[in-house]
Design a protein that fits this description.
The protein has helices at about 5-10, 15-20, 30, 55-90, 100-105, 110-135, 140-150, 185-200, 210-215, 240-245, 260-270, 305-320, 340-355, 360-365, 365-370, and strands at about 45, 50, 155-160, 230, 250-255, 275-280, 295-300, 320-330, 375, 390, 395. By secondary structure, it is of the alpha/beta class. The chain has a domain at about 205-340 and about 355-395: Vaccinia Virus protein VP39 (Rossmann fold). The radius of gyration is 22 Å and the shape is globular. The protein starts with a helix and ends with a strand.
Length: about 400
């Protein structure tokens, strides 16, 4: 077995030595690896969110969240105004479809835009780095906790360590070090890092409020039968556990290409005593039988896969959704509206600097039309789920 301390660096067991307590304490084995009491107090949970292992780290995260809130309110607004002022002074119609080169030439000498970009990026890097450093420094503790949880329920976990991860999934999305597949703690890092995104952009999510809200509004098949549900690209399983909470009798599966993501999702679901199942699988190759699910859904996965991948995933959704079942993927609205210059700039920025590798491809296709072209009926009036993210309610015919 790999020596974890060599893998992550000499300080891998520092947390245990310092008495930091593991997160989920999912089983007796996990309890055994807990450090002796006394040096660092048990930090407990804030509702369903386990508190981070040290006050220092929590304070760092508070700082970067606060900075991000300030940035959204002030610096981003200044940057947006500067962009609009440039369009005005250079007499560019905001509805113009500019080339990337034209757009970059336009902003080249505008300090408000560059300051906003740089500060946002630096803050994002600090958010990820402080989390990654912490989990690596306490690797033994958190890996042992996941090891112990792997075989414990109530839900099942299936990992595929020899799986060939497609190159298209191996990138550092949102500049998260290691991305979804390249760090044993991708799930831990993603969960705490994206809390900052959700709180700054949508107001909250530390109690899974966003995912619960979406799960609560999910339309069900007309015959009312909901025995099996699939959440594609489930990440750390916040939506998956919310689905299981809404449909406790159903067999609920969350699948994701990231092994560390589903491992963390499973450990956390155990902590919540939630019986959702998790598996490391590709959304376009789910391995489930034809027509197995009454509901197939996903939350903000598609803008992170190539356009051809999205088409393959819709085909797979059609295969595994039963006749009369509901397919309800949520992601940004795409294709339908003509991007005007400021929106194009923001999209380019996200792609270039926040490493949203596939989002421009995603926006180049009309997701709803692709679904409608694959044997689903789109209800005339889609169910509104969340401001900012589109809702697509489709019924398999
Ligand atoms: C933005 S995250 C969203 C995660 C989760 N649905 C949530 O609400 O937090 C996108 C997720 O899709 C997963 N993903 C991307 N491409 C995938 C694919 N081809 N098959 C399965 N999962 C994929 C990523 O690993 C990641 O966890």
């Amino acid at each position: 077995m790999m020596n974890r301390r060599n893998f992550f660096g000499a300080s891998a067991s520092a947390g245990a030595a310092a008495g930091i307590n593991s997160f989920f304490n999912a089983s007796a084995e996990a309890a055994e690896v807990k450090a002796p009491q006394g040096t660092v107090a048990v930090r407990g949970a804030d509702g369903r969110l386990k508190r981070l292992g040290t006050l220092d780290l929590e304070s760092q995260q508070d700082f970067t969240l606060g900075f991000r809130l300030m940035h959204n309110k002030k610096l981003r607004a200044q940057s947006q105004s500067a962009f609009e002022r440039l369009l005005y002074t250079k007499k560019v119609d905001p509805a113009t479809q500019m080339t990337m080169e034209e757009m970059l030439a336009l902003v080249a000498d505008e300090p408000a835009i560059h300051i906003a970009s740089k500060t946002w990026l630096a803050n994002q890097q600090v958010t990820w780095k402080t989390l990654q450093d912490y989990f690596h420094a306490n690797a033994d503790l958190y890996l042992s906790e996941m090891d112990a949880a792997d075989k414990v329920g109530p839900g099942k976990l299936e990992l595929s360590p020899t799986m060939d991860i497609p190159a298209e999934c191996r990138h550092e999305i949102h500049i998260q070090p290691g991305g979804y597949v390249g760090d044993e703690f991708a799930g831990h890092i993603y969960h705490y890092g994206t809390n900052s995104f959700y709180i700054a952009v949508l107001g909250h999510n530390e109690q899974d409020q966003i995912h619960k809200g979406v799960a609560a509004r999910l339309p069900i098949p007309e015959d009312g039968k909901v025995k099996r549900i699939l959440d594609m690209g489930c990440g750390v399983g916040q939506y998956t556990v919310a689905l299981k909470e809404r449909f406790p009798e159903a067999e609920v599966w969350g699948i994701d290409i990231g092994g560390p993501m589903v491992r963390y999702a499973h450990t956390r679901a155990n902590f919540l005593n939630n019986g959702a199942n998790f598996a490391q699988r590709l959304a376009y190759d789910t391995k489930f039988p034809d027509g197995y699910f009454d509901l197939v859904t996903s939350y903000i996965m598609h803008h992170e896969v190539p356009a051809e991948g999205t088409k393959k995933i819709i085909d797979e959704a059609r295969r595994v959704t039963r006749t009369g079942g509901v397919y309800y993927p949520l992601d940004f609205m795409s294709g339908g509206t003509k991007a005007v210059a400021p929106a194009m700039y923001n999209r380019w920025w996200d792609h270039r600097w926040n490493n949203e590798v596939w989002s421009r491809e995603y926006h180049s296709i009309d997701f709803s039309k692709e679904i409608a072209a694959r044997g689903f009926t789109m209800p005339a009036k889609p169910v509104a789920a969340l401001p900012g993210f589109g809702a697509r309610h489709a019924i398999k015919v």
